[in-house]
Design goal:
alpha+beta, 7% strand
């Protein structure tokens, strides 16, 4: 084994990254929520996609979708396959271009012909990049619409400026668009989709589309905790300029799932912080009610009562007062004679006060009967 290969394997073993670019991308994602300017985010994103959209999207799948197969060695091999595809394409492109100054449509036409003539591709919904980034010389490439669009953008980046491309989305489908024509990347052809309910988006939106894509259920993947799902949705929301209706709904759902997870783990402070950020009173009430139930079960009825009062949960408040009343009543349990009850006047008064606050007819009747007996 050559020394260079040995060194590569050692580096892969001790590092979480395959390449310096992966680390740069990771740093970008860690810092993105502190960038206020949406245009600034898009320009940085576009710069990464121009450098290598394949590495960018594979790292996203590793970071946010938790596929166990995306080990360092596997990602390294996928990047090698992407380079093989690049060289195959450039050979084809240089051999078949008809003029020196190729238009966008001419370049895309050669990408269409390249896939038709040189590559074995099979469309498969909800696939992962691991199926697409196989050795293009010997293996079949499998992917869904957004992934093959990503591959088109990758190849186009070597012969043109990807910011000149647009995306068209409709009916959970995505293709490329140039003016009056669409490029249907799953069938390698120019067409005109007649769907009237569509959106034309910046090419950088492919990142959010890939993030929102459903998981490949055939792949073994690590459990994705609500916190990671929330981070995925947040990144989609921060990256996207145009599909806020889709991304926003996904972001809110991830918020809700994380809130429920915090409640499950009895982390009510964080749950309430997230609920407040949604500005949704019903979700806020749910968190406070859950916290009230928690304290009720812990027999901290006073604290539970305050929480139920905050959200005007009268039933919860009444149950707390009944529990507080019964706790106080235990102090005179077993006293049979009126002369002994008189000595416990402070407890009787406290029971009267609790019954009055509770507005419970049941407790009021009980304290009246108790007081009349002495």
């Amino acid at each position: 084994m050559k020394l260079k290969e040995v060194l590569r394997k050692i580096i892969l073993f001790f590092s979480i990254y395959v390449s310096p670019l992966e680390k740069e991308i990771d740093v970008f994602f860690e810092s993105i929520e502190h960038i206020d300017d949406k245009n600034g985010i898009e320009s940085k994103l576009l710069a990464f996609l121009k450098r290598d959209i394949v590495v960018f999207n594979v790292w996203l799948e590793k970071k946010y979708k938790g596929y166990k197969y995306l080990t360092n060695n596997q990602r390294y091999e996928m990047y090698q396959n992407a380079r093989r595809l690049k060289y195959l394409f450039l050979d084809f492109y240089n051999s078949n271009k008809t003029v020196e100054s190729m238009t966008i449509s001419m370049k895309l036409d050669l990408i269409n012909k390249f896939f038709k003539q040189k590559i074995k591709y099979v469309y498969r919904e909800s696939s992962d990049f691991g199926r697409l980034l196989k050795n293009p010389r010997t293996e079949e490439l499998v992917g869904d619409c957004n992934q093959i669009v990503t591959l088109y953008i990758y190849l186009f980046s070597f012969v043109g400026d990807i910011s000149e491309l647009k995306l068209k989305i409709f009916d959970n489908h995505v293709c490329l668009n140039i003016g009056d024509f669409d490029v249907e990347c799953t069938s390698f052809m120019f067409t005109k989709h007649d769907n009237t309910n569509f959106k034309i988006l910046s090419v950088s939106e492919i990142v959010s589309i890939n993030l929102l894509d459903v998981f490949d259920q055939s792949k073994n993947r690590a459990e994705i905790l609500p916190q990671r799902m929330f981070e995925q949705a947040k990144i989609s929301y921060l990256l996207s300029n145009n599909i806020s209706d889709i991304v926003g709904a996904n972001f809110k759902k991830a918020h809700q799932n994380l809130i429920l997870d915090y409640i499950k783990r009895e982390n009510f402070d964080n749950a309430l912080i997230l609920a407040n950020s949604l500005n949704d009173y019903e979700i806020q009430k749910h968190v406070i009610r859950s916290q009230g139930i928690y304290y009720y079960r812990k027999q901290n009825y006073s604290k539970a009562c305050l929480l139920f009062q905050k959200i005007e949960d009268n039933e919860g408040v009444q149950r707390c007062y009944e529990a507080i009343y019964n706790e106080e009543l235990k102090k005179i349990k077993g006293i049979k004679y009126a002369k002994d009850l008189i000595k416990k006047k402070d407890i009787i008064n406290k029971l009267d006060e609790i019954a009055s606050k509770s507005k419970s007819d049941k407790l009021k009747r009980h304290i009246r009967a108790l007081k009349s007996s002495i």
